[in-house]
Structure prediction request, 1158 residues.
Amino acid sequence: MTAVATSVQKQRSWWQRFFKSGREDSPFKRLLIHLALILACMISIYPILRVVSVSLRPNDRLLSTSLAIVPQNATLNAYRTVLVEKEFPVWLWNSLAITAATAVIGVVLAATSAYAFSRWRFPGRGPGLIFLLSTYMIPAPMMMVPIYILSTKLGLTQTYRGLVIAYSVTSVPFSIWMLKGYYDTIPRELEEAALIDGASRLSAFWRIMLPLSTPALAIVFLFSWMGAWSDYLFGRVMIASEKALWTWPLGLRDFQSQFQTQWGMFSAASILVMIPVVALFLYSSKWLISGLTLGAVKG
Amino acid sequence: MKKHSLAIVSVLALVGLIVAACAQPTPEVVEVTRVVTETEEVEVTKEVVTEVEVTKEVERIVEVEKELEPVEIVLWTKEGEADGGLQFVQSLADAYTAEHPNVTFEVTNKDVETLREDFLTAGLAGAMPDLLWTVNDHAGPFTDAQLVMATDDLFDLGKYVASARAAVQLGEKTWGVPISNGNHLMLLYNKDLIEEAPADTDEMIEKGLELTTGDQYGLVYNQTEPFWMVPWLGGFQGAVFAPDGKTPTLDTAEMVDTLQFLYDIKYTTPIIPAESDYDGADTLFKEGKAAMIINGDWSLGSYKDVLGDKLGVARIPMVSATEQWPHPYTSGVYFMLPVSLEEASEAKMEAVKGFISFVTNATNQALMVAKLNRLPALEVALDDPLIANDPILKGSADQMTVGTPMPTVSEMRCNWDAMKPEMGAVLADTKAPADAAADMQAAADNCVATLD
Amino acid sequence: MQYLTPDVIFNALGEVGSTVLFILLAAVVLELLVYFLWSPLTAFSRVLDRRLRVLGAVPRHAASTILLVGALILVVAMVSPGREPSPLAPYWPVPLLAFVLGSFLSPNLVKVFKPDLRLPYMLLAPAIVGLLLLQVYPLLWELNVSFTNLSPRHFQSPDFVGLVNYIEVFTKPVLKQVHFVPVFLRTLLWTAINLTFHVGGGMVLALLLNRDLRFKGLYRTLLVLPWAIPQVIAVLAWRGEFHYEYGFVNILLRNAGLSALQWLTDPVWNFLGMCLTNIWLGVPFMMVILLGGLQSISGEFYEAAEIDGASPVQQFRHITLPLLQPVLTPAIILGIIWTFTNFNVPFFINQNELETSDTLVTALFRSAFQYFNLGDAAAFAFVNFGILFVLSALYVRASGGLKGATE
Prediction:
C-alpha cells in the first residue's frame, strides 16, 4: 500500500466504508449488512405472512388482535374448501393456459418487432417508439369500455381468444423496448458476416440473434406472464359471463358479497395463487438479473 | 421456386383461415324438436282410439313443441356466496330447469358496483343479459339510460308489499319486480352482555357507558358508510331530499344534530370504538366484545350461527331528543328486465316471466325466508307462521314498519358520495358538524349539476 | 359446478392451443401479404411520385397533410359513442378515400416504400394491427366521447358539446369539491415521494447485495416477494394492517408506547399509508434492475478510482451513477408513468373515499364509473395523458436523454 492510499483510507468515515463495495469487508461490516438485509426481508415478507395466518384461522375472521402467524386452532379448512368445493382449480388452470399463451405470443411479436426497430432506420421509427411508451400513459380502466364494444362487435368476448389477444398486445410495448435495448448491444458484425456468407436477413435473425438473446427473451416471457397473471380488468370485461373460462382474479370476486367477504377462502386462494409465481421467479431469477441490463449497460 | 411454394402455402393458409372463421356451429334446435316429435308420434300411434283423441294429441304436440324451444337465460345477480345468496339463486334456477327442461340459466354473480358498471357498458355495446337480480337503487341510472323495461303491464304487482314496490317506482311507473323486502338496519344485541334492548338513546348511552370498558364496547357499527347514519337522520326528523325527491337537503339543522349525536357517542360519552369499519364491528360483535351492533338483515344468518339464542333483535332506539324512531332505509332485491328482451323471442320472454313468477310464489318466498332470513316481498307470505314464530324475523319485520323506502333516483348517489367523507371527517374529529353539513350540501349540488 | 376433470383440462388446452395457432398463423399471413405486395407498391409509388413531381413538393405536402388529418377527424367522428350508431357511419368511404389520396399525394410515400424497407415493415405488421385494434381504436373512441356528453342521461345518442368537457376539467370540481390543481399537485407529490424511496431503497439494497455474501440467493428471493404477490391482494392485506384495532401497524405502535393512528380516516396518515404500501410494493422491482446494472459494472473501474484516491461517494457519483444511467433512465421513466397512473394502491387503501387522498387516476375512475359520466372522464383522461407526456419529456431532457434510443 502506498502512502497515498493509506492516508486516503484513514480519511474515510464509517458510512463511507459501509457503502463501498469491495472484497475486503471486515466481519463487523458483514454482520451489519446481514442485519440490515434481515430487517429488510422481515419488512418484505411480514404482510404476506399475515395473509397466510388469515387463511389458517378457524372462522372467517379477517381481524384479530393476536399477532401470531399460526393462530390458535389453526386449520387448513379454507384451503380444502377452496381446492375441493370451489372451482378454484379450474380458474387456476384457465389462468395458466391463458398466461402461457400470452407469454408465447408476446415473445414472438416482440422479438420480431424489436428486431425491426433495432436494425433498421425507417420512417416512423422514432414516433413509433414514443407511441409504444405512451400507451402506458392512459389509465387502463378508461380503455375498458371501448375495448368491450370492439370485442363484442368482433365476437371476441366469452372466448379465450379475445383475452389472449388483449393480454399479448398490452405487454408488447414494454417487451419491444426491452428487447430492442438488448439487440442494440449485439454487434452487427455477427449478422453481417452471415449475410456475406449468403444467408438471408431472416435466417440471420433466426440463427444468430435469437440464440444470443435468450436471456432477454426469457425476461420478456416473464413480464408478459406477470402482466396477464393477476389481471382483473380485461378478464371482467371479456369473459365475465362465461364461468367456465374464469381466471382466478374473477373467481376470487365470488368470495365477496355486498358487505361481507369470505376472508378465509380469499386468503387461502391468494396464497395458492402466489405459489406458481414464486416458483417461476425462483426458477428464472438467474436470467432475470443478468439479462435485464446486459443490453443497456454495454451500450 | 421457394417463393412460389411460399406463395401457395400462404394462399392455402389464408383460405383455411377464412373457412375456419366463417364456419359456425350448427344450432341444435332442430334436432331436439325432431327427436321429441318422433317419440310423440310413436306414442300417438300406439294410444289413439278416437278422432277426438287424435286431434287432442296433435294439439298437445304442437303446444309441447312450442314450449320446448331451448331458451338460455343469462341472469346477473348481486347475490354473493358469503351470505348464501348465490347458492339460493342457483338452486331456484335449477328447480325451474327441472320443471321446464328447455330453459337453462347462466347465473353470474357481480357485486353491486360491478353489476351497475357492467350493465351500462353492456348497454353501450349491445350485449345485455336477459335478466337482472339486483338492488333497488340501480333503477335510477338504468332508467336514465333507458335500459330497463317498466313492469306495470307485464305482472300483477298488486300482490307485492307496497313499500317494496315503492322503492322501484320512478315517474309513475314501476321498474322492477320485488323479490325480497328489507335490506334494512336494525339493532342486534348480545343477551349475555345486555338483557334487553334500550328503548331510547338516553338509555342506550347510559347502558353503553357501563358496558364500555377497555376490552369491550357498548355499541359498534360500520362508521365508514353513511347508510348507517341515515336512520339517525330520520330519527332527528331530517331527510336527504326535499319533497320533490331530487333536490339534496343536506345542510339542515337536523343533519347537524345527527352528526353531533354520532360525534357525541364517540367522544363525549364514548360507547363506540375509535375507528371501526364493517369487518371491525362484525368481528367485535361475533367475538362477544360488543353488546350491541347496528347491522342489516343480511347479517342475521351468521349471527344466528355464532350467538344462537343469545341474539336479540330490536328497533334502533328512539331518539330521546325528538321522541322519534329512527327510520332506516328499506329496499330489497328486485328483478329488472333489460330492454333487449323486447327484441328477444317470445319463448324467452315467456321463460323470463315464468321464472319471475316462480321465484316470487308463496312456496319459494317461504323458502327464502327460511334460508336467507329475509322478509318476503309477496304480501301473503308475510302471514307465514315462520315469521311470526321466529323472534329474529319478527324483530326484523317490526323494525321495517318504521323504515322508509330508499330513494332510487340517480341523485341519491350524489348524496351518498357527499355524505361519506364529511361524516368521516366529523367522526375523525377534524371538522365541526355545521361545516360538514355545509360542505356536504355543496358537494351534492355540484354532483347533481353534472348529472345532466 | 365444474371440476378440474381431464376433460376440462384438455378442452382448455385445445382451445388455447388453437388460439395461439390461429394468432400466429394470422400474423404470418399478414406478414406474407406485406412481403408480396411490397414490390408492386414500391414500383407504383415511384411512378406516382415521378408523375406528381409537377405539382411541387410544398403543395403536395400541404394537400396530403390536410387530407390525412381530415381523414383522422372523420374517423374519430364516425365512432359511435352512444347506443345508437353515429349518423356519419354510412359515409365511411369518405375518410378511406381521403386517407388513400393523402398517402398517394405525399412525397414521403417513396421514403416508405423502399425495397430494403420491406423486411422491417413486414416484421412490424402484426404488432401494428394488434395495437391498432387495442390501443388506437380505444383512443379514437375516447377522443370522440370526450367531445360529447355521454352519461346515463344522454345514453342512447349523446350530443356533441365541443370543448366544454375539457374546460370543465379545470374549472369544476373533479368529484365533489376538490378542484383539478390540488389533485394534480397531490399526484405529483405522490409520484415524487414514491419514486424517491423506490430508487433510494432499491439502490441501498442493490449496493448491499452486490458482493459475495452467504445466503445472497435467499435474501434476493425474499426481497423480491412483494413484486411476486398479486398487487390487489397485497394492497388489501396492507389495508387490513392499517386497521385501527387489528392492524399490526397500530399494534406495534401501541406496544412501543405510542398512540395508535387513524390510518383510514385521517387525511395525512391515509396519504402516508398509501405511500408506505406503494413503497413496499415498488422497491423490489428497482432493486432487481439496479442490481443487474451494478453487476455489469466491472470492478476495474473501482480499483482504478481507489488508486487515484477517490472516496466512495465520489466513486458512486462518477462511476456508478453514470454507468447505471442507461438502465436507470428507462426504469425511472417507467416508474414515473406507473406510479402516476397507479390505481390499485390509492383506490383500495382509501376505502373511505377521502377526497384528500385521491390521485388523478382514482378521481377519474370514480367520476367515470360511479356516475358513468364518460364524456367528462374521457376529457379528464386526455388531460392526464398530456400531463404525463410532458412530465416524461421533461425528465428525459433533464437527465440527458435516452441515449440514442430513438435515433
User: Anything to note?
Assistant: The interface with chain A takes residues 74, 78-83, 85-86, 106, 108-112, 114, 118, 121-122, 124-127, 129, 135, 278-280, 282-283, 286, 296, 298-299, 302 of chain B (CB under 8 Å).
